[in-house]
């Protein structure tokens, strides 16, 4: 989830996402003494049933590399989970190649 500005029209959205960033960082520090790693994944556009775009439109956006598939996010989660315990991926942003915002 990204807290990047959305053109000045979604202050509630941005505030919520910023809150999640702060919560994640606080949780990471709180759980660190227990050897628990916490990662924040900030995806760009992902084709899901939460999108306004129809499934057909989503497939077109995926083909144009303007939208990720859920499998792309699953791959990132798998990558994070495969890291050695001595390392921690704190934040990871993943966006479609053609998503510039």
Fraction of residues in helices?
A: 40-55%
> Mean of the pLDDT scores?
91
Number of domains: 1
Q: What's the SSE pattern?
A: HEHHE
Task: Write the CATH fold name.
Answer: Rossmann fold
The gyration radius over C-alpha positions equals 15 Å
Biggest sheet: strand arrangement:
1-2
Structural features, described:
The chain has 101 residues and is mainly alpha-helical. The two termini are 13 Å apart. The protein is globular, with a radius of gyration of 15 Å. It has one domain (11-94): Rossmann fold (3-Layer(aba) Sandwich). The model has no long low-confidence stretch (mean pLDDT 91). A two-stranded parallel sheet has the order 1-2. Helix content is 42%, strand content 8%. It has 3 helices and 2 strands; from the N terminus they run H-E-H-H-E.
Keyphrases for this structure?
NAD(P)-bd_dom_sf, Rossmann fold, 101 residues, single chain, oxidoreductase, oxidoreductase activity, two-stranded parallel sheet, mainly alpha, 3 helices, SDR_fam
Summarize the structure.
InterPro entries: NAD(P)-bd_dom_sf (IPR036291), SDR_fam (IPR002347). Keywords: Oxidoreductase. This protein is mainly α.
List the topology elements.
Blueprint: H1 11-31, E1 40-43, H2 55-63, H3 70-81, E2 91-94
Parallel strand pairs: 1-2
């Amino acid at each position: 989830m990204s807290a990047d500005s959305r053109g000045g029209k979604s202050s509630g959205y941005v505030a919520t996402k910023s809150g999640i960033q702060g919560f994640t960082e606080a949780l990471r520090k709180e759980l660190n003494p227990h050897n628990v790693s916490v990662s924040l994944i900030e995806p760009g556009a992902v084709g899901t049933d939460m999108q306004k775009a129809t499934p057909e439109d989503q497939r077109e956006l995926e083909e144009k590399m303007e939208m990720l598939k859920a499998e792309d996010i699953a791959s990132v989660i798998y990558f994070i989970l495969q890291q050695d315990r001595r390392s921690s991926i704190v934040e990871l942003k993943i966006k479609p190649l053609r998503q510039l915002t």
